[in-house]
Amino acid sequence: MPYVFTTSYIPYNKSTEVAKKYIETIKEYRSLTKDLHKEIVPNAVKARKDYIESTGVHDVTENKLQEFLLAEQKYLSNFHDIEGYSYTIEVRFKITEALEMVGMKMPE
């Protein structure tokens, strides 16, 4: 199954508020999604010029993509009321899947 990249963009002046919300909600999120994915990168954080960027990478369980995306969106809705906070959710194919789309296979 594909990887899902979730990237959050956090205004510097809201970083404490986002961190508190994260700590309040992450345990429940992980409990609800444990059978839907494997966290490859739980959070990779980088300070940028105008915001803090945090990216997580998830290896989604076979046939669980829709369920995972719904759970991910529901989790991220916890942050909707934080002014200036935004995020993206991207689905990316593994190389083996991408090759299969064009009728090829990875060499063994």
SS-based class: alpha+beta
- Gyration radius (Cα, Å) is 16 Å
Helix fraction?
A: 25-40%
Which outline best applies?
Answer: globular
Looking at the structure, the CATH topology is Alpha-Beta Plaits
Uncertain spans, ≥5 residues at pLDDT below 50? none
**How far do the termini sit from each other?**
19 Å
CATH architecture label = 2-Layer Sandwich
Major beta sheet, strand line-up: 2-3-1-4
Q: What is the CATH first-level class name?
A: Alpha Beta
Number of domains: 1
Percent of residues in β-strands:
25-35%
Quick one: biggest sheet? Answer: 4 strands, antiparallel
| Mean pLDDT figure | 96
Order of helices and strands: EHEEHEH
Q: What is the tally of beta strands?
A: 4
* Helical run tally: 3
Structure report:
It is a single chain. By secondary structure, the chain is an alpha+beta fold. It has a single domain, classed as Alpha-Beta Plaits. The protein has helices at 15-33, 65-76, 95-101, and strands at 3-10, 37-47, 52-60, 86-92. It has a four-stranded antiparallel beta sheet with strand order 2-3-1-4, covered by helices on one side. Helix 1 runs antiparallel to helix 2.
Highlighted features:
3 helices, Alpha-Beta Plaits, globular, 108 residues, alpha+beta
Sequence-ordered SSE layout with sheet pairings:
Layout: E1 3-10, H1 15-33, E2 37-47, E3 52-60, H2 65-76, E4 86-92, H3 95-101
Antiparallel strand pairs: 1-3, 1-4, 2-3
Helix pairs in contact: 1-2
